[in-house]
Amino acid sequence: MSGQPVPCSPREIGSLFLFEKLAPEQLGRLCREGRVELFQPGPVYTEGDPATCFYVMLEGTVVLSRRVGGDDVEVSRTSQRGVYAGAMQAYLGDRVRQVYNNSMRVTEPTRFFVLPADVFAEVMSEWFPMATHLLEGLFFGSKSTQAAIGQRERLLALGSLSAGLTHELNNPAAAAVRATSTLRERVAKMRHKLAVIAEGPFSRDALASLIEIQERTAERVAKAPALSPLEASDREDALGDWLEDHGIDNGWQLAPTFVQAGLDVDWLEQVAAAVDAEILPGAVGWLNYTVETELLMSEIEDSTTRISHLVDAAKQYSQLDRAPYRVVDVHELLDSTLLMLSGKIGPRIEVVKAYDPALPQVPGYPAELNQVWTNLIDNAVCAMNGAGGQGTLTVRTALDGEQALVEFRDTGPGVPPEIRSRIFDPFFTTKPVGQGTGLGLDISWRIVVNKHHGTLRVESEPGDTRFQVLLPLTAGTPEERSALTNPEETA
């Protein structure tokens, strides 16, 4: 938008703090190659448009805003004379894409000194060569530093997740190895017991009954009920007494295995009724091996299933072989991240999932959303660890108008009011030296706000800190909408 041209006075330009040290001939050049324009209330330029001009306010009121989703969020409002905006990086030339990084509007008739971007770049290079060189170094150095530390942040998170995943995989793997070794021993004893039974005075009908009982026992093990410690203890006592009354040696050793398998006195009575009294001890011993092998196979199945779930969670977390932008189930992403971080969360922090089952899927970059969840969960866990190492992490989802809400609530000490406005700044951290880069929340903010056109905010008081992520339910840009309808193009 262009304003109304008005006369340019070198004296007035020289009174601005940006130009107060310039020589008269330099001020004259600014007035010749620049201009003064009067803008009526309304927009001056729009975020994302080519940055063609550098603006310095002479008088009036200016408002700067940034686009967040479909809204313009005000970031600055001032009437201070001499404030500047627009093509402030024109001195970098074509090494950086020159677009306006925000939108500017005025709320009352406002005069600006306007300098074309190419003229601004030229006078910067001619009049302030050392300053230009310094600014270039600061700009590109900051970019490189932020990229390097951002990469380190991701590597640290990956290392932590890898260590946690290794620990989580090791437990079921070790359990499966132990169970397999014990199973091999039990099967060997079962073969020996079978040889003893085959050589004993068992009739054909007795052996058939024993085999039938064995089959029914195996079925019963698979459906064993969960008992409380008190119920299990009472049942062990009853089974132990029955076995002792029927002349079975070491009955107290057999009773816990039978109870774990869901067997009771009624089952033993059925066994006793099916075989003769003289072969009852051998039959019970044979069935004990059957029960043990079934329990061991169940343990192996549970362990290998756990390993499979962990591998699936790792794949879901990393989003291997998936399109980078697609419609995602937020609950699946949260579950995989919580599982990956379970080792770091530890047993003293209770995790509560308060998911809204009606929450629809959302369009997004799932691998990067997982990074956001990781950063927010890690911060919550660190806060609670610093306050005694225990607490409650509540992960809640809900529908908030036209957006999906994902909230992470912890019972830590909270974010002090004096630093609350700075926590999303790059390199700002409250963690001890060496434990944080200060980019976790900055990266999360960029992923949520810049890439997903959402909102990331915090509400905090001692014992109740909530980081809330709001994600749009529909794709924003035409490129994103195309990615959803043509996922093979983004895979």
How does this structure look, described?
- It is built from 15 helices and 16 strands.
- It has helices spanning 10-14, 24-33, 117-127, 129-199, 204-222, 229-245, 251-260, 265-274, 280-318, 330-340, 342-345, 366-385, 417-420, 440-451, 478-485; strands at residues 4-6, 35-39, 42-45, 53-59, 62-68, 71-78, 84-86, 103-106, 110-116, 326-328, 349-354, 362-364, 391-400, 403-410, 455-461, 464-472.
- The strands form 4 sheets. A 5-stranded antiparallel β-sheet has the order 1-2-9-4-7. Strands 11-13-14-16-15 form a 5-stranded mixed β-sheet.
- A hairpin with a 2-residue loop joins β15 (455-461) and β16.
How many strands, what sense, and barrel or not for the largest sheet? 5 strands, antiparallel
Q: Helix content range of the residues, please? A: 40-55%
Cα distance, first to last residue? Answer: 40 Å
Net shape: rod-shaped
Number of strands: 16
Count of individual helical segments: 15
Give the spatial strand order of the biggest sheet.
1-2-9-4-7
pLDDT < 50 runs, ≥5 residues:
432-439
Structural class by secondary-structure content: alpha+beta
Tell me the strand percentage band: 15-25%
Overall pLDDT, averaged?
77
The gyration radius over C-alpha positions equals 36 Å
